[in-house]
Amino acid sequence: MKFKDYYAVMGLARDATQDQIKQAYRKLARKYHPDVSKEADAEQRFKDVGEAYAVLQDPEKRAAYDQLGSGPQGGGDFHPPPDWGTGFEFSGAGADMGGDSDFFEALFGQRGRGGARGRGAAPADHHARVLVDLEASLQGATRAFTLRVPEVDAQGRLVSVERQLNVKIPKGIRAGQQIRLAGQGFSAPGQSGAGDLYLEVGFQPHPLYRVDGSDLYLELPVAPWEAALGASVPVPTPAGTVQLKIPAGSRAGTTLRLRARGIPASPPGDLFAVLSIALPAADTDAAKALYAQMAAALAFNPRASLGV
């Protein structure tokens, strides 16, 4: 997927004001409208301009887009960073404007289908994505977050207003689930009350575990003799270290399940230990002699499955 430079599509600098964005759109929309344009690629250019305008005219989508910078160097393939858009508030109201390109969908998806809130709008719900440490879900905790609310200042420039929130993280929450903060959404001028704020939870990378739903995966190194002969080895789990039986003849990639040792959801997730074979270093004469003895005593061809 190729990165789309919406500013280049509109012929604008990255610090363009909202008025300059509107003026550029009106000019280009007239130029490339399929009903009047004689350009061979007018229809596609018209769609590109409309998509660029849908992002740049919306302070929320524009601020999130600007976070990506100018895209990959050399025109390589683009993939949004895993934590892209984290900490930005998005409203859930507005016109149904957006793009239909893979690039637009990868960035905004359904979230991008709403436009910016307007003056006199009714109280609206807000949405934001936050990253928490896995321990917050395993134990329940309160975490502090800084959310950025994009706005347009009196000069038409895009600015970001920050607000601090202390949020209670429910024990057992999973990635993709939402925390609702009543009355923490947008309060329109002249309107009483405010919408709600919905925080979509994601997990920060963990040094031990990979999260999949309510399950946890742990890469568990074992010695060659433990895998070949079987053994009982210690395994770190969120609730403490337990002993796990390694069946004789285990291979790298063998997956062993520890029931209900994952995220304490309802029902609780499991912990899966994925075996990897850790080879001792041949860094002493004695170790080299043992390896040579194994090579001579064992009729073992690690490439037999390749037919060589």
Specify the CATH architecture of the largest domain. Orthogonal Bundle
- Strand arrangement, largest sheet? 1-2-6-5
Largest sheet: 4 strands, mixed
What count of domains describes the coordinates? 2
Low-confidence residue ranges: 93-97, 112-122
Architecture overview:
- With 308 residues, the protein is an alpha+beta fold.
- It has 2 domains: 6-203, Orthogonal Bundle (Helix Hairpins), CATH 1.10.287.110; 209-306, Sandwich (HSP40/DNAj peptide-binding domain), CATH 2.60.260.
- Helices cover 24% and strands 27% of the residues.
- The strands form 4 sheets. It has a 4-stranded mixed β-sheet. Strands 7-8-12-11 form a 4-stranded mixed β-sheet. A two-stranded antiparallel ribbon has the order 3-4.
- The longest helix is centred in the first third of the chain and has 15 residues, at 18-32.
- The relative contact order is 0.10.
Layout of SSEs?
Blueprint: H1 6-10, H2 18-32, H3 42-56, H4 59-66, E1 89-91, H5 102-107, E2 126-132, H6 134-139, E3 141-152, E4 158-169, E5 178-181, E6 197-203, E7 209-212, E8 215-222, H7 224-229, E9 231-237, E10 240-246, E11 255-258, E12 271-277, H8 285-297
Parallel strand pairs: 2-6, 8-12
Antiparallel strand pairs: 1-2, 3-4, 5-6, 7-8, 9-10, 11-12
Helix pairs in contact: 2-3
State the main characteristics.
single chain; 308 residues; alpha+beta; Helix Hairpins; HSP40/DNAj peptide-binding domain; 2 domains; four-stranded mixed beta sheet; 12 strands; 24% helix; flat
